[in-house]
Design a protein that fits this description.
InterPro entries: AraC-bd (IPR003313), AraC_XylS_family_regulators (IPR050204), Homeodomain-like_sf (IPR009057), HTH-like (IPR037923), HTH_AraC (IPR018060), HTH_AraC-typ_CS (IPR018062), Tscrpt_reg_AraC-type_HTH (IPR020449)
Largest sheet: 7 strands, antiparallel
Strand content: 15-25%
Strand order of the largest sheet: 1-2-9-4-7-10-11
Number of strands: 11
CATH topology of the largest domain: Jelly Rolls
Pfam family, one: HTH_18
Shape: elongated
CATH architecture of the largest domain: Sandwich
Number of helices: 10
GO molecular function, one term: sequence-specific DNA binding
Protein name: AraC family transcriptional regulator
Keywords: Activator, DNA-binding, Transcription, Transcription regulation
Length: 285
Amino acid sequence: MRWSNENIRCVFNSLERSLPLYVETIGYSAWERIFNRPDGYPYYHWLHTLEGEGIFEFSGSRVSLTAGKGVLITPFTPHFYYPVSDRWSTAYITFGGVAVAAILDSIGMNQSAIYTESDQFSFTNVIGEMIHKVDRDAEFSGLESSTELYHFLMLLKKFGMPNDQPSLSQYYDKLRPVVQWMEENCSANVGLPEIVGQANMSVSYLNELFRDAFGMSPYSFLIQLRIREAKKIMVTNPGMALKEVSLLAGYNDVSHFVATFRKKEGITPAKYRELHLAAQASDAL
């Protein structure tokens, strides 16, 4: 999208605000101004720099927003921002929704933070395309904008670098070799020492990477892989005894397997298999 010297501001109909996630406004400021909001803004607010530089102050922090940097502010967070270059151009989006807090909580983004673009993700390209669609298409609905907003948030979660930390994608890249090894060996007699040895890094650093990337420890991730393997075995071998299933899934003790499965899935392996077979029979009718 080509940016001009004219501001663009699109405001969505209040009828759309019953959606789980909706856009309130989206736009482009060719010459960003001074904004002081001691009581914050009533919606989530995303702002990023296209050209020039501005200063953004919030929660006791004072950060420089140059090209490729953006900020996500939660509702009613006091903030103050202003240009420090001759021209400071920005793009922005404000949004809310009945499920917005739950969505952002689930992906660990329900807090104000500064984000930096990575090589894999351009704020400008994604938001610019949204603005172009809204500005040029009178039929562009709130439902479509909600879909576009969700897509942006997922990309921001995966590729954006929050507060100068690596992006989620970069964490994945670091963990990809050890995760692949764990997937190939989850049924073997391996535990945390073997995982650490394969990763060739300290236990604390490996734990930190796994928690940042997956929200769990390496050992919990291994348990998830074993549960997944057990499900696959039970589905493909409905007559197999649970003791044999547990051994093939990496458990030496069937009682431990049953207890772990029930803790993670809320039902026993036998009940899981029963429900799966019942679903198969129903589909066949």
